[in-house]
Amino acid sequence: MKKQKVQRNRRITKMDRSRDLSRLVYLYGNDIVKSPSFHKTKEHIQHGTITVHQHCKDVAKCSLAISKTFRIKCDQRALVRGALLHDYFLYDWHDKDHREIKNLHGFYHPGIALKNAQEHYDLTDIERDIIHKHMWPLTIVPPKYREGWIVTMADKYCSLLETVRIRRGRKRGISK
Ligand SMILES: [Fe+2]
Ligand SMILES: [Fe+2]
Questions:
Q1: pTM score > 0.85 for this model?
Q2: Which 8-state DSSP code applies to residue 95?
Q3: Which domain holds residue 168?
């Protein structure tokens, strides 16, 4: 009974934290999240069944969680906005028509995302740096600001979780 109560309280705390992070994402990135062009990222898959839209929101929340957990002082607004736009490349990199892009997607998409983001939104230096450098160390130049380091780590963590989920799904499919 006591164990169930502890588990329930833990679940509630986790949900409260997630809600708090979502609130901050909308506080700093509401105009981006609500814009029709950002909605286009719902049409493209990142990994498995996760859309680019969901991935970018997850990376924004995870970036905030990292900065809070490790008490890293940073520009939260830039952190959220850079994370939301870090994969704003606006194409499906799994698509057969993009076979050439698919092979080099990791190298090129930060530049494409930055170009698109600059056309659609006003960006600060920190936000530009987050988008352009988030694939480090694949793209050799490291982030200049701590916000960039946080998003780079959050992106890798979220991508890892998405890949693990695909593998688990496949294993379940095989064992059926
Ligand atoms: Fe990316
Ligand atoms: Fe990403």
A1: yes
A2: S
A3: 2-175
